[in-house]
Amino acid sequence: MARDPRYDILFEPVKIGPVTAKNRFYQVPHCNGQGYRDPSAVARMRGNKAAGGWGVLCTEQAEIHHTSEITPFIELRLWDDRDIPALAKMSDAIHAENALAGIELAYNGPNGSNNYTREVPLGPSHLPIATFYYDPVQARAMDATDIKNLRRWHKNAAIRAKRAGFDIVYVYAAHGFSIIQHFLSRRFNQRSDEYGGSLENRMRLLREITEDTVDAVGDKAAVAVRIAVDELMGESGLHTAEIEDVIGRMAETPDLWDVTLSDWSNGSRTSRFTEEGAEEEFVRGIKRLTTKPVVGVGRFTSPDLMVRQVKSGILDLIGAARPSIADPFLPLKIDEGRIDDIRECIGCNICVSGDMTMSPSRCTQNPAMGEEWRKGWHPEFIRVRESESRVLVVGAGPAGLEAARALGQRGYEVALAEAGTELGGRVARECRLPTLSAWGRVRDWRVGQINKMPNVSVYLDSRLDAAQVLEFGFDQVVVATGSVWRRDGVAHHHLSAMPIAADVAVLTPDDLMAGQRPSGRRIVLYDDDHYYMGGICAELLVKAGHHVTLVTPAPEVSTWTRNTLEQDKIQARLLNMGVDVIVSHVVDAAQVDHMQLACVFTGKTRPIASDGLVLVTARLPLDQLYLDLKAKEAQWLDAGIAGVKGIGDCWAPSTIAAATYAGRRYAEEFDAPEIGDALPFKREMVELLP
Ligand code: ADP
Ligand code: SF4
């Protein structure tokens, strides 16, 4: 198919200082939880994206000097020459696909505790460091020598970056992760010398380091400034008018302006809290301040919106981190007129959770993310079938859909049987909950792909039992029958059933998703799941007119969503809606007119009046079909069945990302040689010094 001429503008080259991007698709720097630990893995991941048509691919942040590092997080390091080969491997992989390679140099300063190097962190002022944890560490206010040193370190790192082959070198002043932003900030910068006070003084470090960097690498590489245009704190934080002033004052100094929101939770807001393109109101004024190209993000997946950003003079380059993770081949698909094939980011920030947990980032939509090198999975391609095997997939949730899709892509004959009258399983149900509509894309993309495959047949309204499966006589059977929310309170705290009086009205998320609502007004929602479901059910109940008290043993609501950068936003939303939040307590026992709460620290109990209980606790696998088939293993041979495997939530309930991964893994390992106890992935080992 040919490209729609409406999108031609996206494929125009853009000159960035001494280099030229072949098109407007710009993968902005993004972390991925691999960094210096897994250099070949990051190189492969970026190289694959370059093959997918991005004009520019940037690294995650690269620490420029050992006096500022962000242990335990795993980003890149450019501490000395020995770091160059790993970085060069990445720029080589990007150049091999005719794209430009950018590197985000970072000196975190007050944003790193230096737990690895044990150096004293430096900052504009004597203040506690600003990390995700309340570390008992303070930064020391830099003196003139420290500032001179920092400028030299940054310059040396820029030169090393150029030697490592990078075409674009960043000066980083965004996301609250960079000392340059801390100098800009009236909150963090309390200095009285020429680096503090007035805007001109606070931006002096930015100006000097940008000029130094142009000086050091400008002959060959472009210099980008990535700047936080707004901290969404009103006048008390950095705000658009102030940063427009900064950009206006040094408009032509860098070769590119990369504009974003701060902190990271605002720079990477999820679909629960913002629409695609929501940064527009903060960045639409930047281009009239400078003749240099401007790149910005917005979880862009729609080419029409991208075109509008360019045509209306908001952005020159379409920045993307998450959309490029969910679909590394997004530009190529637009180029080839395959808009329907775009695997749209759902804005869930599971990718971010990889970085936050120091593990290779995964992606709900793209199960190959993080597995490109270590397992050799490709975001777009999969090897063709190696036998005539016919596969029955039972259950069309994210696991079953992905298994059927990937097996279908390999060319196997697949039957997908679904008990319900719609495809999507939990995704179909959950995307009807408040704020989760974008999650339906997990189903939509897979169903769209499967519909194009003549070798995949879909059977709705087909609840199968073991006898029926045996009758069909497929060679292989995948059981992906999902899970059910528990109604006995078992989860992290209660490991056996909670005492619940027989007349207590108990509902679970499954009941709420099926349309049931409590009959009473005062509802206690007990959340011992700690991800998104508790908060969303509370929101649903408030909207239905109930008064909700959310009780959780954690010290805050939805505590795991710290890893998706949503926790503070979720808690604020619930408090603003009038939800009563009781933290560090469990529901110890449930009675018809009250719940007995117990403090997790003291065990002290107290009753709260309530008319009903909603339990958001653990789930149970719906694995009866799998167990029944296992019990009939003696009949498999006669039925022509060579293997039965359970995957996804029916194997062990987990995230949607784990389900799509399980589906993909099944398809990847299908007909692959048995590896026994061998490690199922590659890993890079450190070099031992003599
Ligand atoms: P996962 O996240 O592992 O994909 P889901 O719960 O989202 O799990 O999806 C499981 C799907 O399996 C649901 O759509 C459910 O209707 C379907 N299902 C469950 N049992 C059967 C069965 N015996 N036959 C066919 N489909 C089933
Ligand atoms: Fe988008 Fe979620 Fe994938 Fe991240 S994990 S890229 S937010 S779909």
CATH names the topology of the largest domain as TIM Barrel
Straight-line distance between termini: 57 Å
Taking pLDDT < 50 over at least 5 consecutive residues as the criterion, the unreliable ranges are none
Q: Please, what is the CATH homologous superfamily of the largest domain?
A: Aldolase class I
DSSP strand tally: 29
The overall average pLDDT, rounded, is: 97
What is the overall number of helices?
A: 23
| Gyration radius, rounded | 27 Å
Strand order, sheet with most strands: 3-4-6-10-11-12-13-14
Helical fraction equals 25-40%
Q: Tell me which ligands are bound.
A: adenosine-5'-diphosphate, iron/sulfur cluster
Q: How many structural domains in the coordinates? A: 3
Shape: globular
Biggest β-sheet strands, sense, barrel: 8 strands, parallel, barrel
CATH class of the largest domain: Alpha Beta
**CATH 2nd-level architecture of the largest domain:** Alpha-Beta Barrel
Portion in strands? 15-25%
The secondary structure category is alpha/beta
